[in-house]
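=== Structure Prediction Worksheet ===
Name of assembly: unnamed complex
Input type: mixed (protein and possibly other molecules)
Chain count: four
Listed entries:
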Amino acid sequence: MAEIDTQASLQDVALIVGGGPGISSSCARLFAKEGMRVAIAARNPDKPVLHTLEKTFGVRRYACDASDPASVELLFRNVADELGVPTLVVHNIDGRVPGIFRKGLDDVEPGMAFDTIRNSAFSAFLVGQQAARRMRENKPNANGAKGTIIFTNASAALKGFPLSSAFAMACHAKAGLAQSMARELMPEGIHVANVPIDAAIGWTQEDGTRAHRLAGTSVDDNLADPDHIAQTYLQLHRQHRSTWAFEIVLRPWVEKW
Amino acid sequence: MAEIDTQASLQDVALIVGGGPGISSSCARLFAKEGMRVAIAARNPDKPVLHTLEKTFGVRRYACDASDPASVELLFRNVADELGVPTLVVHNIDGRVPGIFRKGLDDVEPGMAFDTIRNSAFSAFLVGQQAARRMRENKPNANGAKGTIIFTNASAALKGFPLSSAFAMACHAKAGLAQSMARELMPEGIHVANVPIDAAIGWTQEDGTRAHRLAGTSVDDNLADPDHIAQTYLQLHRQHRSTWAFEIVLRPWVEKW
Amino acid sequence: MAEIDTQASLQDVALIVGGGPGISSSCARLFAKEGMRVAIAARNPDKPVLHTLEKTFGVRRYACDASDPASVELLFRNVADELGVPTLVVHNIDGRVPGIFRKGLDDVEPGMAFDTIRNSAFSAFLVGQQAARRMRENKPNANGAKGTIIFTNASAALKGFPLSSAFAMACHAKAGLAQSMARELMPEGIHVANVPIDAAIGWTQEDGTRAHRLAGTSVDDNLADPDHIAQTYLQLHRQHRSTWAFEIVLRPWVEKW
Amino acid sequence: MAEIDTQASLQDVALIVGGGPGISSSCARLFAKEGMRVAIAARNPDKPVLHTLEKTFGVRRYACDASDPASVELLFRNVADELGVPTLVVHNIDGRVPGIFRKGLDDVEPGMAFDTIRNSAFSAFLVGQQAARRMRENKPNANGAKGTIIFTNASAALKGFPLSSAFAMACHAKAGLAQSMARELMPEGIHVANVPIDAAIGWTQEDGTRAHRLAGTSVDDNLADPDHIAQTYLQLHRQHRSTWAFEIVLRPWVEKW
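=== Predicted Assembly ===
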């Protein structure tokens, strides 16, 4: 569209924290196609999907434990040194530990709840803090922005579902963090957004079949397509600061809410 | 961007209800540039700003009292006959009657409150109903949508401010309508969105100076630029149905909220 | 409980607008038992249920069309003259016109939508305005309050359900009004509250059987008991102004939300 | 009031987790006066204020680190053994670590954010889990309830304020937990409530002067009085299950919101 500033895009450095085959990969591909230098960080940067992103789109892979302050600080230093200071940071970590899905309150071991919060909300704090610290030094781009920080979230941020106590805590915490950051950082020219995805996520795999996160859900467009989610992230990044959106809930047309 | 279906755009018919020099005009210009056939409806379709849109962008002008059921029905019939069934309808009517702005509860004459609700919320109902009735007959486009209905709203939809009783009612009513319509129509392939603008609105006039709605506010990008609002409306219209947003609050970077 | 100021109770004048056998009757009985002088207003004040309230509890009956400004003004004048200026006003009008329940957007005649808004939200405006105008002249009671204005609302105020467009508008409008009034009037010592009942309502009839509003729902405590709703209204009225609640959503323990 | 079941009160066992001189002490006093057996838990149970509660009202003191799973489990076992299984549990821990108040995102050390979440939200999870586990075995009382779990919260649960990132996370997390628990436990007969106090809190000290939490705020009823907060908690505990409130925001009449 006319409003896209190609110069700005070429100078954009995107850092995606969380390295799965869904939203993170879709973002990496789209941002690279749009001319950004793209970094992706994961606990295990050797996953085949990340190697593919590197080979095909030049995406740079980083190892990071996003719930460890030193690891996150190092990540941002390395990205800044090697690609430049990020102008677009996506925190895309779900954080639920194995076995916690649809577990009743009584059956959640405290350690599982604790780890879910740390993986999700505390890592969001660490990534958000480093991103803000770095972006503050950027010059505003053509849209008046020094940078964009996007938190992927879930419907559990909007509503505390039963059998979801730990995830409700984590998602609500992330939403509260995002809101506080938005009020604090937007007047400094840093765009902060919270994007709850109210859906299971599904996508087309390399072999042409559709993959999706939840077993047993039908594979149709009643699953949120991560390529379309990435489009919304790009639009958020390119919004002019005279009309910034803080929160966009994305859901498939047939979703009940 | 890649996802834009030019064919779809060429077949798009946009109807904007409300004919001021701000958001309505920005939408009309952008939609026309994108290849849509554009209709604009106003109580007085002879305003110079509408004639300019007609001359420069081929926008078709219609007279309509949006709070009158027969007038709204006639509008949709005429637009369908002359341009085609709308695929994008924007309800962009503020509806506040003269003198109601910042009036204490005690000073609002009941008739003023009544007219504010009728102008704003009831007209939204009439326009939304006609739009849904017509769009239902459309074939889905490349994004799986039969059409998009967008309600411009205000921060009074999110928060009932003091000295704003009638407007709080009207904006909340419009938001409630939009939500009900979204839940009812999205599964039929009609995208419904509520867009509260949490800001005063300002724009560049033909003579190069900036205009804005509220006297005494400084003319800077602390005012929402209607050209950027129109961009968000276009993005909403082009979202794939696998990831529809229902509500986007737009506010300038420096707005307190 | 200790904090109840019997003197204050004896001077309390309660006006309930809306005269059905559910919440209105429960409020009338409870308020009378607590020593208040009680007025109840209805379009038809000759309903047997109101005569019973008069005979048993000394409740005064008034005829009022709550969507007519002159009628509401007259009501408040008469109540003030005959019982004293109200210190507690309850707006308890649902407002849905016959035939609108669970009607799809396409099937709602505009006049039905219009009347629903007028019956519910506009009447709330009229009653709220008169209540505030009168209460402003009261002296603060032991809790620091000049009066309490309570709006009964529905879950449609919290969520725009499908097949409920007109009611969603009306309930949202009432909620917006209540919020605006609360922000405007609380600092003047008038307590304003919005109480959405997220349930069907059921009660024990004089013959010992249970009545409920919705046919087909089972008669158990999955229906909100209006006697318990009235208790919450009384508690709201007696809250000290150092800790006023604006909104309380009441729902039965088994309700899905 | 008439609906109070004295028998039920005499059998009530209240456990207050968090032992300050404000809400916790007010609750302890009120609950004891109403005939409940009362336990209060604090990291340091030797504070003079707790000894006074013991001497004057027979309140039992317990040492507990509420962010430690084993400590919380032991607390509930001891209370159950010594006073009986709790029927009313109040989690009243703010959790902010020293020095975090009004600190900008950049100045919050990660460890401070982490501890704030652990002190507040994680301890709420631990207390809520133990409370639910124990209450499940209770018989329903006259109001149909097996027990009540109340989380004291702050306005940071409703809105992420600037300069409040860690507290926004913690309070949002607590709200999400409470919601999830409410949806899960209410149908089992356990009443869960989230009570954000949108105010600074102030009270009368033993020497007759007023104390308050924030230095520099005027001591008047623009501070929430914890004795009135305790009243609301008692009312929540005594609500019949046909009309349970999940969330009540309490704010002084003059508070801006």
